[in-house]
């Protein structure tokens, strides 16, 4: 087992999902017949990660029902979820963790390569090539390939962006400790800030290298249109990548 903790940020209200978001947390929405967080747990375990913290908020009792008592899974509740953003959720998740982490958004489906790319050691933020998903979040890097900006505005900086944010980020132990400090500094100014702003603030203090996987099959689910895209266009490729990885493991 790898000596790190996976954090799944899962406290959001899911407002953009409309009626479906009022009935269940986004991470428990099924794509390909299974909840997205359940699929992420499978991928984490297959990669040798046995410690997972899921930080809940909206409809947290559904996470308790789904994963309470699951081996290696710790559920932590962010009681401020309705008035704060994902950076407060991340700060809640990091409390008491001394070692390295990999941070994942809950509303993702992704091929195993996306996670494996983040587990090469040290800080690393995973990006992809163009997805055409309609709600892209762009990442800019400096000349050394380290994070300098994250924004939904493709014109946020004059230079071309490096890639699109996937929602998988690794931090080493020293950066975890620093991130706790940085998060509180950012939250003092903007209590409802998202975790991406915390990563950018961290990147101003320590390098957060970025990697781009141009053909990575992945999708985020924020609304019904994105759910349909994930189900119909992306999930078949994700499932094929998982099967190929499993077949390779069986023959190795």
Summarize the topology.
Layout: E1 2-10, H1 19-23, E2 30-31, E3 34-35, H2 36-46, E4 49-56, H3 60-67, E5 73-77, H4 86-94, E6 101-105, E7 108-110, H5 112-118, E8 124-128, E9 138-141, E10 147-151, E11 163-171, H6 173-189, H7 195-203, E12 210-213, E13 218-220, H8 224-251
Parallel strand pairs: 1-4, 1-6, 4-5, 8-12
Antiparallel strand pairs: 2-3, 6-11, 7-13, 8-11, 9-10, 9-11
Helix pairs in contact: 4-6, 4-7, 6-7
Molecular structure report:
The chain is an alpha/beta fold and 252 residues long. The protein has a single domain (2-251), classed as Spore Coat Polysaccharide Biosynthesis Protein SpsA, Chain A (Alpha-Beta Complex). It is 37% helix and 25% strand. It is built from 8 helices and 13 strands. The strands form 3 sheets. Strands 1, 4, 5, 6, 8, 9, 10, 11 and 12 form a 9-stranded mixed β-sheet that branches. Strands 2-3 form a two-stranded antiparallel ribbon. A hairpin with a 5-residue loop joins strand 9 and strand 10 (147-151). Helix 4 (86-94) packs across helix 7 and helix 6 packs across helix 7 (195-203). The relative contact order is 0.17. The model has no long low-confidence stretch (mean pLDDT 95).
């Amino acid at each position: 087992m790898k000596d790190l903790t996976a954090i799944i940020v899962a406290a959001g209200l899911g407002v953009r999902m409309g009626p479906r978001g009022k009935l269940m947390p986004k991470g428990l929405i099924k794509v390909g017949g299974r909840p997205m967080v359940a699929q992420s747990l499978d991928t984490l375990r297959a990669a040798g990660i046995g410690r997972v913290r899921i930080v809940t908020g909206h409809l947290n009792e559904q996470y308790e029902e789904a994963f309470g008592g699951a081996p290696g899974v710790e559920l932590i509740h962010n009681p401020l979820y309705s008035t704060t953003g994902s950076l407060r959720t991340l700060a809640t998740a990091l409390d008491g963790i001394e070692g390295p982490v990999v941070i994942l958004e809950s509303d993702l489906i992704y091929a195993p390569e996306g996670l494996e790319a983040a587990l090469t050691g040290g800080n690393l933020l995973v990006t992809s090539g163009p997805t055409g998903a309609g709600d892209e979040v762009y990442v800019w890097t400096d000349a050394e390939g380290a994070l300098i900006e994250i924004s939904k505005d493709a014109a946020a900086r004059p230079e071309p962006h490096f890639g699109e944010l996937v929602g998988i980020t690794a931090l080493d132990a020293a950066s975890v400790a620093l991130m706790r400090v940085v998060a509180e500094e950012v939250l003092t100014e903007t209590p409802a800030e998202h975790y991406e702003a915390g990563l950018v603030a961290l990147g101003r203090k320590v390098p957060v290298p970025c990697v781009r996987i141009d053909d990575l099959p992945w999708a985020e689910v924020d609304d019904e249109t994105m759910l349909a895209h994930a189900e119909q266009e992306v999930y078949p490729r994700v499932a094929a990548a998982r099967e190929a990885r499993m077949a390779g493991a069986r023959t190795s």
